[in-house]
Structures are given as structure tokens and as C-alpha cells.
Design goal:
The longest helix is centred in the N-terminal third of the chain and has 18 residues. Strands 3-2-1-4-5-6 form a six-stranded mixed β-sheet. The protein is elongated, with a radius of gyration of 21 Å. Helix 1 runs antiparallel to helix 5 and helix 4 packs antiparallel against helix 5. By secondary structure, the protein is an alpha/beta fold. The protein folds into two domains: about 80 residues, lambda repressor-like DNA-binding domains (434 Repressor (Amino-terminal Domain)), CATH 1.10.260; about 190 residues, 2-Layer Sandwich (Endonuclease, Chain A). It contains eleven helices and six strands.
């Protein structure tokens, strides 16, 4: 099994481990900040993964916690890897969250989408039409960059040892003509094709189900191969999205997803529904 690396995920791992070590040592954030001669907010942001830490910062923090030897060197290596740049850093001006960086290292994603086809499964014309409708004032240059990032992300599904994706899609998605009938036909045909890939499971949640467990909104659960990288939930919204990492939150979303896939059509019936919908367009 290939272990994927992402600076974003390494930064998150570093922060989680530094917080664990600080709490185990019984040291407050204020004490650490005083020893490093920096603000408490900087230490807090390092621990939450919102800010990177230099190897020197990490070495000084570990000295406060009484950590040295191989354990310290392992974390220093994580700190070095966290400072590298992923391909998506070139597109930082059009990325509003850390999602792409977290996605890049995931081994599996369980996603529910109630409004649109997930970005990993969109064809270019669909992506372009969707972005324009969501951002009517977008410039042609920014539009091209956003579409390029979305298409580049999809290599995760076809690379060696690809990402495993299980997506539950509301039937409403296929009745909303994003880009018009021709674009929707191409988009649905693409979904039928990728549904045949061994690492992709697609299910449609039919109208006939009525009320269901995912009515609070779309979300994705990102899972990682390495135990040091716990799952994270991304709940998307107009401002970018919300990352949820607490054990209770993770259990809740895993519970919701289990109910959604139990309520959805089986994969073969889902593909049949998609094929029938294409004929209606």
C-alpha cells in the first residue's frame, strides 16, 4: 500500500503530536510561548495545523516537553516535510481552504453530495458551468485556474494505487441541468464510465426515499493509511467549508454516511438509473 505524502497533512500531524506532547508534559501554551519568545496564538495555530513550524521552533518546543533522541528527530523530519510545497500551492489565490492538500494524501473518501457532482468526478464543461454560476463576477483567468485545479485533482483516481472513492449522490443532481442538456449528457456518461473502476463506488439516493440522513448538507470523510493521521470531515459551505476532527463529530458523520449508503440504490441499479436519465435528456 502506497503512503501518500502531503505537506498539509504533515503539518496537521505535526500539530496534533506537539499538542499531545505539551499536554502530556503538563505545560500550558502560555509557558511555551514565553520560552520561545513568541505569541500564544502562534503556538495555538501550530498545534491546529493552521501555521507551519520551522524545525528550530519544533526543536525548541520539544526541549520544553523533555523530548529528545529518535522521537525528536522523527518529528523534526515531519516538520521538514510540512514545509515543502504541493503542486496546488501554485494555485493558492483560487483555493480558499486546505481541502486539496488534505485530499492529496487521503487513501479513501466517503462523500455525500446533494446538489452537484463532486469535483473529483466532474467533466471540464460541467465544472466550468458550475463555477461561473457560483461566481458570476469571476475573471476568465481565475476561471481557467479553478477548472485546472479541479481537473488536476482527478489524477488521484487513476494513478497507481489510486484513491478509493465511495460517493452517494442525490438524484436531484441529475435533474439540475448544469450547462444544459449536452453538458449533462456528457457528465452522466462520464459517471457511468468511472463507476466501472474498481476503486470507485457510486450510489444514487433516489427521490422515493423522501427524508434522509444527509439533509443537513453535503460532506466528505477523508481517511488516511497511517494511524498518525486521523480521519477528518469536510462540510462544504458558501464561505469555503468547515473541517471537523473531534471523535464525536467523526462518529456522527460515519453514522450518517452508513445510513445514506444503506438507503441509496445499489451500485448496479444506480448506474441503470443514470443510463435511463441520459435517454431523457
Amino acid at each position: 500500500m502506497t503512503v501518500r505524502r502531503s505537506p498539509t497533512v504533515r503539518r496537521r500531524r505535526l500539530g496534533l503530536e506537539l499538542r499531545r506532547l505539551r499536554e502530556a508534559a503538563g505545560v500550558t501554551i502560555d509557558v511555551v510561548a514565553d520560552r520561545l519568545e513568541c505569541s500564544s496564538s502562534k503556538i495555538s495555530r501550530i498545534e491546529t495545523g493552521h501555521t507551519g513550524a520551522t524545525p528550530r521552533d519544533v526543536r525548541d518546543m520539544l526541549a520544553v516537553y523533555g523530548v529528545d533522541g529518535s522521537a525528536a528527530e522523527e518529528l523534526l523530519q515531519v516538520a521538514r516535510e510540512a514545509r515543502l510545497k504541493g503542486w496546488w500551492h501554485l494555485y493558492g489565490t483560487v483555493l480558499t481552504t486546505a481541502y486539496v492538500g488534505l485530499e492529496a494524501a487521503a487513501s479513501e473518501i466517503h462523500a455525500y453530495e446533494g446538489q452537484v457532482v463532486p469535483g473529483l468526478l466532474q467533466v471540464e464543461e460541467y465544472a466550468r458551468a458550475m463555477i461561473v454560476k457560483g461566481r458570476p463576477d469571476i475573471s476568465p483567468v481565475e476561471l481557467d485556474r479553478r477548472v485546472h485545479v479541479r481537473m488536476e485533482r482527478q489524477s488521484l483516481l487513476t494513478q497507481d494505487d489510486p484513491l478509493r472513492l465511495w460517493a452517494v449522490l442525490d438524484e436531484a443532481i441529475f435533474h439540475r441541468l448544469v450547462g444544459g442538456p449536452a453538458v449533462m449528457t456528457r457528465q452522466i456518461d462520464h459517471l457511468v464510465m468511472v463507476a466501472d473502476l474498481p476503486n470507485i463506488t457510486l450510489q444514487v439516493l433516489p427521490f422515493a426515499i423522501g427524508a434522509h440522513a444527509g439533509m443537513d448538507g453535503s460532506f466528505a470523510i477523508l481517511g488516511y493509511e497511517e494511524p498518525a493521521d486521523p480521519d477528518v470531515v469536510f462540510a462544504e459551505n458558501a464561505a469555503g467549508g468547515l473541517f471537523l476532527e473531534k471523535d464525536e463529530e467523526l462518529r456522527r458523520y460515519h453514522f450518517i454516511f452508513d445510513h445514506l449508503r444503506a438507503s441509496a440504490l445499489p451500485p448496479d441499479e444506480s448506474v441503470a438509473l443514470l443510463a435511463a436519465r441520459v435517454k431523457e435528456l
